[in-house]
Amino acid sequence: MPILDQNSFEFISRGTEYTRRIGIRLGTILRDGDVICLEGDLGSGKTTFVQGMAIGWGSLDQVTSPTFILLNLYRRLDGGQFHHLDAYRLKDAKDAEALDLERYIETGPLAVEWAERIKPALPADHLWVTLRIVDMDQRDLVFTAHGSYYKKLLDNFRMRIYGGL
Ligand SMILES: Nc1ncnc2c1ncn2[C@@H]1O[C@H](COP(=O)(O)OP(=O)(O)O)[C@@H](O)[C@H]1O
Ligand SMILES: [Mg+2]
């Protein structure tokens, strides 16, 4: 199991379905207030991963790429709300601050694509996911926990992928 350090680990995805499936694994353990930040080039699999997370979390709604509409909302039977923000079109963190992300975080998990563009507007504690295109079918995913809560979340997630090592 490739561990970079105590707070991060790496996963090589060998196809779209793998990326979606590990997104599902993470989605099943997400709770209200969890913030998942995604960084990676166009086509690196950010939206695919968020699709998995929303499915695992229990979304009744289909996940689409929010590139043109900024923010998507997915609902669950129990009234939970999963927010999916695409920061591609935001100029900087000031734009994001105007969105008042806190009110979204209160009602459910928040996933942010192109998170690096609005970093100052995001909570200091979060799970950061860096996706890199290796070749046509492979993506390199690196997960890094920021803050003790996310370290526990990452341990839990890692265990769900690799078993209790
Ligand atoms: N291992 C992989 N993981 C995720 N996507 C992959 C993978 N291999 C190929 N792809 C393809 O790359 C594209 C990723 O698109 P998308 O998830 O929308 O990326 P992003 O949101 O980062 O722009 C899709 O067309 C998908 O089928
Ligand atoms: Mg996308």
What does this protein look like?
The chain is built from 5 helices and 8 strands, in the order ββαβαββααβββα. Helix 1 crosses helix 2 (46-57). An 8-stranded mixed beta sheet has the order 1-2-8-7-3-6-5-4. It has one domain (3-160): P-loop containing nucleotide triphosphate hydrolases (Rossmann fold, 3-Layer(aba) Sandwich). It is an alpha/beta fold and 165 residues long. The structure holds adenosine-5'-diphosphate and magnesium ion. Magnesium ion binds next to helix 2. Residues 46-47, 65, 67, 113 line the site of magnesium ion (MG).
Give the helices and strands, then pairings.
Elements: E1 3-5, E2 8-13, H1 16-27, E3 35-39, H2 46-57, E4 71-75, E5 81-86, H3 93-98, H4 102-107, E6 110-113, E7 126-133, E8 139-146, H5 148-162
Parallel strand pairs: 3-6, 3-7, 5-6
Antiparallel strand pairs: 1-2, 2-8, 4-5, 7-8
The protein binds adenosine-5'-diphosphate and magnesium ion.
Structural class: alpha/beta
Backbone CA Rg = 15 Å
- In which range does the helix fraction lie? 25-40%
CATH architecture annotation name: 3-Layer(aba) Sandwich
Short recap of the structure:
With 165 residues, this protein is an alpha/beta fold. Helices cover 31% and strands 27% of the residues.
